[in-house]
Amino acid sequence: MNVLAIGAHPDDIEISCAGTLAKLVKAGHQVTICHASDGDKGHYRIPPEELIPIRQREARQAGAIIGSEVISLGMRDGNILADHEGNRQMFIDMLCRVQPDMVITHTPNDYMPDHLSVSKLVFDTTFLATLPKASKQYPNCAKVPSLFYMDNLSGLDFQPTLYVDITETMETKTEMLRQHQSQLVWLKEHDNVDVVDMMVTLGKFRGVQAGCTFAEGFIQHMVWTRPNAVRFPV
């Protein structure tokens, strides 16, 4: 099975669902990680032209830990617009290239504009990519993939409909997140948070809810045309 995880920025996926991705890889599934933006504004002192290659390298290093391809769509922080035709086409082309059976992305009520735009772009284009001639570069997607939303940062206003026990892959998840050293600095300075500690705390909390040591929570998008009979394969 092909699984595609799409975040707005490098590090979003590692924070919210990398434990599940690691588990999927161990189960024999193909996992691709995509971030829409290069994360050019995620540092107070490193200028964008220097930060972009740093963040690309950090993202590749994180994906390599579980053997996943990492795709960047090359957008810029703050400019991921959901109704922009060019942005839609980039998402459609990427989906047609990957041909996912399952997609994981941000929730529609996440905390910042880039995340919200990615959530809407993913919902829109996972359908649009199945239409004839959707992409000029790749065959149209064979089916509308199942869609899962990953946890909000700190779990605010997020009630999971599914939990994945990531106790065995928590160390891998932590190692993946630690590859994003530039963002450990940025989130501490911008949001006054130790993001690794926050991630571990949320994992423990979801674990308490799920009856295990560490867990990740998801909400499945339940609408017609989504293959809702497909079970989460972990």
TrEMBL record:
Top-level class of the enzyme under EC nomenclature:
hydrolase
The alphabetical list of record keywords is: Hydrolase
Task: Fetch the Pfam families from UniProt.
Answer: PIG-L (PF02585)
Q: Is the keyword Phosphoprotein assigned to this protein?
A: no
Source organism superkingdom = Bacteria
EC id: 3.5.1.-
Q: Which named protein is this?
A: PIG-L deacetylase family protein
- Record organism: Paenibacillus hodogayensis
